[in-house]
Amino acid sequence: MKKILRSDVDKASLDRLLGLDSSKIGYYSEVKQKIQELETANLGLRSKTRELQAVFDSISDGVAIYDGKGRVQHRNHICPRMFPMETLVGRSCKKLFHPEVESSPHDCPVERALRGESVQVSFNSAVAGMDTRYYDATITPIEDSFGHNRALMFLRDVTDRRSQELQLMQAEKMSSIGVLAAGVAHEINNPLTSVAGYAEALLRRLRDEPGLSLDPRLEVFQSYLEVIMKETYRCKGIIDGLLSFSRKSEGLIGAVDLNGVLQEVLMLVRHKSRYEQIEIAEFLQPDLPQVSGDGAGLRQVFMNLLLNAHQAISGAGMVEISSFAEAGMGVVQIKDSGSGIAAEHLAQIWNPFFTTKTVGQGLGLGLAITYNIVQRQGGEIQVESQQGKGSMFTVRLPLCRS
Description:
Layout: H1 6-18, H2 24-58, E1 62-66, E2 72-75, H3 79-82, H4 94-97, H5 109-114, E3 119-125, E4 133-143, E5 149-157, H6 159-208, H7 210-214, H8 221-246, E6 254-256, H9 258-275, E7 278-284, E8 291-293, H10 295-311, E9 317-326, E10 329-336, H11 366-376, E11 380-385, E12 391-398
Parallel strand pairs: 7-9
Antiparallel strand pairs: 1-2, 1-5, 3-4, 4-5, 6-8, 9-10, 10-12, 11-12
Helix pairs in contact: 6-8, 8-9, 9-10, 10-11
């Protein structure tokens, strides 16, 4: 029997302790190296993740990624501002794009993107008690590492752009109407001039030939002709006011007769007052000094204010117009007995696109334009209002220097 020496036993124990008998030291060294490589890779991945997240969050549009089942997988910080609940992680695309119907592969833009299409859609969101918002969405497919499609969505709020487009459309329409109205007014003015001229000629003949006035058959002719002349010149006054209002403003500041401008505008709105049973009371200071301003711009100012006053009245009511001079300024006040303006809205009425009217009744530009015109002419405009008790707008313009 072979004799086992103690030294041999000690060496074997040491080998087992160090793992040399199974090459474990080499194995652990390799594992340690792999772990270090993985840690380095993880650091790189975390760095890239932070960079990508920073890019993701820096995009000013809403960005969301939908997984293969059409559910939100990621979103940036803009999405919650637009659709906080509809874009929650895990929510179906149905919540955003078709909340009233089940998802359809032919209708849903996310499902179309999951099939490989790039889709652009426009939609709006109407929430009770809030203004309608308009959105454009671009949804494109992105392929993951397993060859499956996900959907990347860019969502943009285009409400302001749509409002500006509506404003431009309205401005173009009003410009076309202005050109048409001016043409029609000129065409009507010519025959009215003839009617007035012949009526005056007949009246002169009746006065110059006493025998005609004694004829009982012509007894009422003079009164009839006077009515024809009066109404003809009233029509001509309306048309002249329409022509003045449609005339393009050159932005030139000059001497303006405030009372004259008010009378021109009143001539255009009196028919509206009679139709709507609204009484107009005038308190215009005689011999009011002229103000420094742009006549065409001021016609638009007072037209906007008078139309707003009429629209604020439901049923019968009263609009009072006053003009006077005060502290080197020409002052015009337009007061109505309408519904008034809520206190929380008073500071916003001069803002473009702010309106409390129903859809289709206005874009909320009238008072913003009015404010800008008055400011450009060195004047000021103020409003006093109490809900349920009407409003009063006061326009102050510098008097011409003598």
